[in-house]
C-alpha cells in the first residue's frame, strides 16, 4: 500500500481528544439521573440520523422522556462532536462514550480494538447511511491542478485521515489503478487540516468522506478527480454501542434506535427541511448538505442488509494494511440487528421490508433548488439545464442545482459537473473519467462547459 506518514496518529492518540470531563456512564449520577454520552460527527452527513439531525430535532430526548414516564427515571444526554470516528472509538473503549456513529472502516477499527476484551466490546446496531457503489467517498485536487484522474496521483502527496472511510476508498482506488506501494505519499491528517493543506499547496490531493469533498468543490477550493462509485463497492456508516451499556440499559438503546427511526422518517419526508436543520447545527452550507440527503443521495435505510455485512467482510484486509490490529473482527457477533428489529417492531414497522428494499427510498433525479421549500425535480440532466436557463432569463435566483451521473449514479452539483452534448441531449458527469467512459460507447458526445450547455439547451 502507499507509504503513510504518522500512520496511526488519529487511531491511537485519539484518547487525548476525549475530554477528561466525560464521566463513566456505568451507573447513575449522584442526583439520580442516568447519564448517556453520544459521540457523533456533525459534519459527516451519512450519520445525521444518529447525530446532527437527531440532536437538532430532539428525538432521542423525547423518546427518553417517554421512557422516563414509564420507569420513573430521569435521563441526561451529553452530545460530543468529533471530526472522525477514531476519538469516538477511544472514548468508547475508555467507557466515556456509550453510543457512537462512524463509517465502515472506522467501525472495523473499533471492532478490532474494542473487542480485544469483553469489558470493552462493542456492537454495530444499525446503518445510518450507505451507498451501494461507494459514491460518498471521493478524492479532490486544487481547481488549477493538472491532476485529472486517480492514475495521476503516482508520485504525489495525498491527505487522508488514516482509518477513515475516505482513506479506505483511496487505498482501494490506488490499488485498482495499479499504483504500487510507495508510489503515493499518504499524509495522515484530520479533514479540516487536510483541506487547508490542499488549499495551500502542501498536498496534491485530498481523500475524504462526506461532506468534505462536496464542501470544498462547492466553495470553489477543489475539483473532483475520483468518485468512489467507480469502485462499485458498498460503503456505509452505522450506529455502534458498548456491549456493557447495551446489557445494562437495553431500554435506552431501544429508545435511541426509535429516535433514529424518527429522524430518518423526517428526513425522507422533507429532505429540504432536514438539510437546513443539519446546516444550522453543523456549520455546513445547506446546499452541500442537500447534495447528500436530497433525492438519490445517501440511502438512510437503517436496516443492516446482508450486502452491507458482506461489504464489511470484504474490507477486513484493510486493518492489516494500515497497522497492527491483531484482534480479528468476528462479524457474526460484532453485527447485531436484534435491538433494531425490536425498535422497528415497537414503532409499527416491518424490518424484513427494510432489509428487502432495493435501492434508495428516494429516486435519483435532476433538481433545481430555488430557496426555501421551492425545488423542482426533473427526469434528466437536460431538464436541469432548461430550468437553469429559464431562471436566468426570468431573473430568478437559484440556490443550487443537482444532476445525476448516468454512468455512476452519483448526485452532484450541476455547475461543477463535466458536461457532454449529444445532439439535443446533455449529460452531466462527476469526473472526467466517468465522462470518458460514456464517450467510449457514445462517440458523438462532445465536451461542453456548463455555461455553454445552459446557453445551448433548447427551451
UniProtKB/TrEMBL annotation:
Alphabetic keyword roster: Signal, Transport
Keyword Transport: yes
Annotated region described as Disordered, given as residue ranges: 433-459
Signal peptide, first to last residue: 1-29
Domain SsuA/THI5-like, chain residue ranges per copy: 135-274
Domain of life of the organism encoding this protein: Bacteria
InterPro entries per record: SsuA/THI5
A Pfam family per the record: NMT1
Protein task: Part of a binding-protein-dependent transport system for aliphatic sulfonates. Putative binding protein.
PANTHER family attached to this UniProt entry: ABC TRANSPORTER SUBSTRATE-BINDING PROTEIN, ALIPHATIC SULFONATES-BINDING PROTEIN-RELATED
Family recorded in the similarity comment: Belongs to the bacterial solute-binding protein SsuA/TauA family.
Protein known as: Putative aliphatic sulfonates-binding protein
Lineage: Bacteria, Bacillati, Actinomycetota, Actinomycetes, Mycobacteriales
